[in-house]
Design the sequence.
């Protein structure tokens, strides 16, 4: 999926500095959409029954710049459930509330090397969830959200994620009911976490809040605004509202860089060079600190649960827009010459 050959010949901007001008970004986003609309690899998720009904052909892309520039292509306004991508934003809210050290102590920041829903990973680590992007760590993180009751915690999450998106996000009741009826494994995580002293209160109630956060309805456009808020040091570039602190953004992006794409997180960082989080409904958002965010949505997933088209399109955009955090010079072609700017191609 992450074959760098896919972007061979794509001229690369430098990662430092600003994005190309608005018109150029717009052109590159349209090109990315066109390039991958005929890709048909992967399979739509079906372990949450309702997700299997998604139209596999849907494909949306969005780029939001920290300066407020907006770029949408294809089905960027199609609504789907945020799923695991919620983990990144709920984690940011938890650090904002409890601080760097406490959340690190309870949830951890290291990769498990195992699937996002692995019970073995929790057992191998003496009940420590290891990081907030696997289900055990995400449920422990949801348990840290302030609120005297699960309903208050839910409102805190819904309103917090809405502030990231710059509009009120709503629960998709159909997705919520479908997952709530089938989430035995997540409920097992709740019990295990409680037995290891990593979750206070009623574990089923915490898992229910987690299930609701995963069923929040978003679009690729929303995800790009949410990601751009992290890229902008916690200020939503569309509404101007400060949602979390700069330090919280830095902590969140560091964890997401190493854990955001399930067991493919290392491959992703190596090839694309950006922190990103994906979800099983087909969304992915990648964040370029100080520049903006790129979001993709398309329901067909690879074996690890990452949208195939979104990965390819974001890979292309990372290169063409110069977003790779580790690139300090523009790409050179086989002769050693600097790649021609896209305009000259
Ligand atoms: N709600 C899903 C779960 O808990 C999220 C999974 C995902 O997007 O990776 O299994």
Sequence:
């Amino acid at each position: 999926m992450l074959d760098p050959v896919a972007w061979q010949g794509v001229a690369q901007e430098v990662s430092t500095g600003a994005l190309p001008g608005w018109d150029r970004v717009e052109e590159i986003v349209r090109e990315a959409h066109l390039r991958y609309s005929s890709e048909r690899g992967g399979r739509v998720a079906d372990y949450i029954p309702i997700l299997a009904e998604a139209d596999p052909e849907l494909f949306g892309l969005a780029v939001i710049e920290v300066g407020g520039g907006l770029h949408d292509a294809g089905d960027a306004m199609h609504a789907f459930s945020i799923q695991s991508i919620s983990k990144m934003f709920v984690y940011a809210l938890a650090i904002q509330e409890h601080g760097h050290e406490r959340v690190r102590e309870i949830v951890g920041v290291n990769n498990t090397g195992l699937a996002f829903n692995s019970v073995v990973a929790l057992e191998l680590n003496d009940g420590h969830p290891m990081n907030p992007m696997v289900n055990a760590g995400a449920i422990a993180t949801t348990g840290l959200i302030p609120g005297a009751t699960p309903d208050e915690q839910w409102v805190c999450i819904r309103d917090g994620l809405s502030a990231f998106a710059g509009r009120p996000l709503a629960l998709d009741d159909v997705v919520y009911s479908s997952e709530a009826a089938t989430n035995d494994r997540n409920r097992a995580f709740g019990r295990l976490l409680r037995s290891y002293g990593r979750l206070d209160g009623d574990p089923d109630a915490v898992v229910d809040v987690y299930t609701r956060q995963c069923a929040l309805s978003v679009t690729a456009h929303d995800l790009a605004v949410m990601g751009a808020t992290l890229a902008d040091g916690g200020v939503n570039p569309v509404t101007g509202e400060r949602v979390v602190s700069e330090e919280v953004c830095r902590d969140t992006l560091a964890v997401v860089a190493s854990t955001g794409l399930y067991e493919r997180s290392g491959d992703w960082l190596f090839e694309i060079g950006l922190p990103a989080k994906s979800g099983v409904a087909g969304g992915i958002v990648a964040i370029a600190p100080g520049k903006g965010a790129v979001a993709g949505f398309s329901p067909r997933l690879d074996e690890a649960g990452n949208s195939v088209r979104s990965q390819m399109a974001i890979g292309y955009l990372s290169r063409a827009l110069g977003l790779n955090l580790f690139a300090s010079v523009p790409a050179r072609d086989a002769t050693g010459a600097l790649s021609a700017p896209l305009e000259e191609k």
